[in-house]
Each structure stands twice: as structure tokens, then as C-alpha cells.
Amino acid sequence: MPKRKKSRDQHPQPAFLFDLDGTLIDSVYQHILAWREALRALDIELSNWFIHRRIGMSDSLMLNACMRESGRRLDKKQMEKLQAMHTKAYMRHVGEVQALPGAKALLKQLTTLGVPWAIGTTSLRERAQKSLDMLGIGEEVPVITGDDVEQAKPEPDLFFAAAKKLKMDLEHCVVVGDSVWDLLAAQRAHALGIGLLAGGYGEDELVRAGAYRVYRDPEDLLEHLDEIGVKVEEEH
């Protein structure tokens, strides 16, 4: 009698939910420059380090933090103008942006291994599209952007929506991100969090925010997929 094959439901491969900026795309510092330029247009001066520490938040939370730090109060129309100026400034810098080492190879390998994956980014679709094109991500890949949810990171809505698109339970998902906001959202979604150093946060910060493992960049993660529960070799 032939051996009964283990079903995927008994031992499912984890699904991967990726952040975009600073995780697959080397764009964090372009976003910092774009936010600084937009803020200065309204005579709001904030240090680059302060802006950096908020990259990965939703635009609304970013702006709330900036207003609190600067002591300024902007009305809804001014806030919308600031967001639009940030997008416009970022698009001027987007030509400097590149995929992080190993990003394309990692996504290709996951696809080859039959591992489901999706993108969940706080960026609006207009800003994210160039990065998606750079990675060769087509319409067949579930992509959730800040346009698609009411609340973005550190709220877990992006990852709930991405897991739903993949028809996966979040307990079987791995959230990969570069910021503490990604990992906080992962914890709130009860998903496994993996941190990457490519966005500028330190290993200790990512671990304190809930990272199960921390890797240098997508290339480093690709070399250690087996540590995350991915079956990289055929069982005999």
C-alpha cells in the first residue's frame, strides 16, 4: 500500500507578507528627503533622524508625529497638501531608487517553491507603482497599499487584507519588514515577524519590536529560508 502523502493543510508552507520600502526596495532615504522637502514648503523644520524614525508609519500618523514635534497645527486641507507634496517630491527622487540585493531572487525562489507571498505597504499606489514595476511584480501578485485600508501600519489592517487575498490564516504568515512599525503590526496580527536591517533600524530595536529573526537584506533572508520554516529541498 503506498504511503499516504502529507497534505498541505497538515504542514502548510508559511505565506510571506512583505513590506516594500526599505524591505524590498532601497527607498527609505528618498522618502526622508521627500518628507523634509514637503515639510519645509510649509516652514516646518525637522531633523532627518526624526523623519527617519517615522518612515513606515501611515501618512496620517507620520503627519501627526511631525505636528506634535514641531508644535504646528495644520487643518485637513493643509495635511492633504503636505501628503501631495511628499508624493510629488518622492517621484522626483524615484530615479535614484533601486531594488535591494536579492529582492528579485527571493521573490522568484518563493514562487518556485510554491510559497504564497503578497505585498503590504503604507505607500499610496501612485508612489508604490514604480517600485512594483522595478521588481517585476504583476497583477497576479496581491498588493495592498495605503489606499486600500482605513488604517495603515502600525495598525495590522494591511496584513489582514494581504492574508485574506492569499486565503491564508495569519498564524501561517510571516511578515517581513525593516521598521519597528512593521513588526508592531505583525505582533498585533499574531503573525511571525522577520526584521531586515536594510531600512536603517538596528537589530536590537527590531528584536524588541518582536522580530523572530533579523537578517541583513533580502539576499541574506534568501540564504536562510529554512530557518523560517520554508521547505527548500525535496523530502525523500
Q: What fraction strand? A: 5-15%
Tally of DSSP helical segments: 10
What is the ordering of alpha helices and beta strands? EEHHHHEHEHEHEHEHEH
Poorly predicted runs: 1-9
State the name of the first-level CATH class of the largest domain: Alpha Beta
Please outline the helices and strands:
Blueprint (H helix, E strand, L loop, with lengths): L14 E4 L6 E2 L1 H14 L6 H5 L6 H12 L5 H18 L4 E2 L3 H10 L4 E4 L4 H10 L8 E2 L12 H10 L6 E5 L2 H9 L3 E5 L6 H6 L2 E5 L2 H5 L14
Helix pairs in contact: 1-4
Note down, in words, how this protein is organized.
The protein is of the alpha/beta class and 236 residues long. It is built from 10 helices and 8 strands. The chain has helices at residues 28-41, 48-52, 59-70, 76-93, 103-112, 125-134, 157-166, 180-188, 203-208, 218-222; strands at residues 15-18, 25-26, 98-99, 117-120, 143-144, 173-177, 192-196, 211-215. The strands form 2 sheets. A 6-stranded parallel β-sheet has the order 5-4-1-6-7-8, sandwiched between helices. The protein has a two-stranded antiparallel ribbon with strand order 2-3. Helix 1 crosses helix 4 (76-93). The radius of gyration is 18 Å and the shape is globular. Mean pLDDT is 89; it is low at 1-9.
